[in-house]
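Q: Please design a sequence for this.
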């Protein structure tokens, strides 16, 4: 994988509303896209997933992954496409085996909690070529999008990726939290390795046509302030410093709470994505913000969705704002509810 210094950005695309907001514009109607907008709630996705077999096989097939990425843009006219991939391709490229088991979620083996971290790191060999199909997907998607539609690439935050690598699965956060306390040198070595691979990966996405990238730190909210600074803010700052001149970076530290303002100031991200529990109060009015509609309001639909949308728009009025959910779209969300939201938003 090329380093950020060695990669030149793709030729400039005509201005898209989302990219204008990331540059600080305040638009009468905010651009809109949804996290996980390409996925299981769409029948066209389910049909393609069944035809391709496993999830990993689907995301490593550039033609199929590009098709999945483009599906919600075609159906809804979203202002941005989000690359169809997964944050766990980074540990897979670093040498862990990756499998997605039906009903159980992703599995990484060997789980790094089962050996001293320094020994585990010495045994791991990064194979950046594994990420090449995903970069090809980016190229294909950019070629298939209208110029006014932005393409967003992404990667997981190093802390969040590390939680999966230690436990071997998602949601089991104790292994990473204990390793950070018991073996801070080894854990820093792991975070630094993830950070370096992520920099090259995001730089390559930008060179292939991504107009912006998002860093998903889905488990940042479990850390106390000093650990949050060490394992979320510091590596994010390194990533932004390395690639921020190539394309704008959206930071999404889910559950960060009172650490949001420090994250925004100290990481240097160009925009901040807010989950459904976070408010813009206390954040600079010039800082582009993304969010924070409750995914369950979209699932509920009807008057509840109308009220939630109106409240969200009022909350961010007068700010550079990208309308999005506070987290990923629920797989049970009816398509009619997405259509309802977009009709109300677009008048």
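A: Design:
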């Amino acid at each position: 994988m090329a380093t950020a210094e060695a990669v030149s950005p793709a030729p400039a695309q005509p201005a898209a509303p989302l990219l204008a907001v990331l540059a600080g514009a305040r638009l009468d109607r905010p651009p809109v896209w949804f996290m996980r907008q390409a996925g299981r709630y769409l029948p066209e996705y389910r049909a393609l997933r069944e035809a391709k077999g496993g999830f990993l096989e689907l995301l490593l097939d550039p033609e199929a992954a590009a098709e999945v990425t483009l599906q919600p843009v075609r159906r809804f006219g979203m202002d941005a496409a989000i690359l169809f991939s997964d944050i766990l391709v980074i540990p897979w490229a670093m040498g862990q085996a990756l499998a997605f088991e039906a009903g159980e979620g992703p599995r990484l083996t060997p789980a790094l909690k089962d050996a001293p971290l320094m020994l585990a790191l010495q045994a791991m060999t990064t194979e950046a070529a594994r990420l090449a199909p995903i970069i090809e997907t980016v190229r294909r998607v950019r070629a298939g999008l209208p110029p006014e539609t932005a393409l967003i690439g992404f990667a997981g935050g190093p802390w969040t990726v590390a939680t999966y690598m230690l436990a071997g699965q998602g949601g089991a956060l104790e292994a990473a939290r204990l390793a950070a306390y018991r073996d801070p040198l080894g854990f820093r070595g792991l975070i630094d390795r993830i950070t370096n691979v992520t920099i090259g990966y995001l730089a390559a996405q930008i060179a292939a046509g991504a107009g912006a990238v998002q860093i998903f730190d889905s488990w940042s909210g479990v850390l106390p302030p000093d650990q949050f600074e060490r394992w979320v803010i510091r590596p994010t700052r390194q990533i932004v410093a390395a690639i921020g001149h190539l394309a704008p970076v959206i930071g999404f530290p889910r559950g960060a709470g009172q650490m949001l303002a420090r994250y925004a100031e100290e990481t240097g991200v160009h925009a901040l994505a807010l989950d459904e529990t976070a408010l813009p109060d206390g954040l600079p009015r010039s800082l582009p913000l993304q969010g924070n509609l409750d995914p369950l309001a979209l699932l509920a639909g009807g008057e509840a969705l109308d009220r939630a949308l109106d409240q969200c728009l009022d909350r961010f009025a007068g700010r550079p704002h990208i309308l999005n959910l506070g987290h990923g779209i629920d797989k049970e969300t009816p398509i009619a509810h997405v259509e309802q939201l977009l009709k109300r938003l677009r008048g």
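Q: Thanks. Anything notable?
A: The domain at 4-346 is CATH 3.20.20.210 (TIM Barrel). Residues 2-6, 8-14 have pLDDT under 50 and may be disordered.
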